[in-house]
Q: What sequence folds into this?
């Protein structure tokens, strides 16, 4: 069974601060996705990373896939209140249609 | 992007009744759809994998007679919560994989359905 450990579980920061969310596993994933979910809504895909060492940027969000494809990080620069939400990492193994989800990071950005 | 629509978004029912939730892929074909349950402030818990034209695969601990899943077409899967009880109250979310995009692992989620059983 593949497990994804996501940390921190909760994060409350002031507007303008930077933050990093981590997603770690002992298993290798063929791809890893990051989702953002707002209360009462379904998760929305932010990015998919598939290559070890890959870095993708989405405005103020930077996603990195570890060289060994066992871990990933999400870095947010100059956080804004609109970034508030639940961030979920999810990985899929080779040849598998199922996603393994981390427990999520609940981010609150205080104006 | 791929769109998944879920209906109803909210439903309130009496204990003992059955509730059906629909999950539709609007602009793509999905041979596989997934059903999740999410408790407040927690991550998604996979309930079952729905395969078009065949029986669903349920995760350990999920009662298949309680949560009936039907995937009759490439764009529609339904989850029926039978004889619902207050402990079944939860946020149910479906997701689908766009088969034309290959095995990238990406899933597209519905908006979720909030079930409240009185």
A:
């Amino acid at each position: 069974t593949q497990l994804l450990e996501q940390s921190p579980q909760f994060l409350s920061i002031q507007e303008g601060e930077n933050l990093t969310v981590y997603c770690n596993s002992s298993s290798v994933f063929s791809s890893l996705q990051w989702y953002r979910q707002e209360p009462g809504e379904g998760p929305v895909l932010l990015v998919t990373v598939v290559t070890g060492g890959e870095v993708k940027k989405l405005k103020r969000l930077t996603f990195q896939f570890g060289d060994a494809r066992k871990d990933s990080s999400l870095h947010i620069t100059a956080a804004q209140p609109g970034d508030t939400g639940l961030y979920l990492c999810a990985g899929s193994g080779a040849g598998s249609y199922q996603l393994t989800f981390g427990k999520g990071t609940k981010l609150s950005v205080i104006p | 992007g791929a769109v998944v629509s879920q209906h109803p978004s909210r439903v309130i029912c009496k204990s003992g009744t059955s509730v059906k939730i629909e999950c539709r892929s609007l602009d793509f074909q999905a041979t596989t759809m997934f059903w999740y349950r999410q408790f407040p402030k927690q991550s998604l818990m996979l309930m079952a994998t729905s395969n078009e034209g065949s029986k669903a695969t349920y995760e350990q601990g999920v009662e298949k007679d309680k949560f009936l899943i039907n995937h009759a077409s490439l764009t529609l899967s339904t989850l029926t919560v039978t004889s619902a009880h207050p402990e079944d109250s939860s946020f149910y979310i479906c997701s689908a994989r766009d088969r034309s995009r290959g095995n990238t692992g990406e899933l597209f989620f519905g908006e979720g359905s909030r079930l409240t059983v009185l």
Summary: The mean pLDDT of chain A is 92. Chain A touches chain B at residues 29-33, 35, 40-45, 48, 50, 88, 90-92, 95, 97-99, 101-104, 106 (CB under 8 Å). The longest strand of chain A covers residues 85-92.
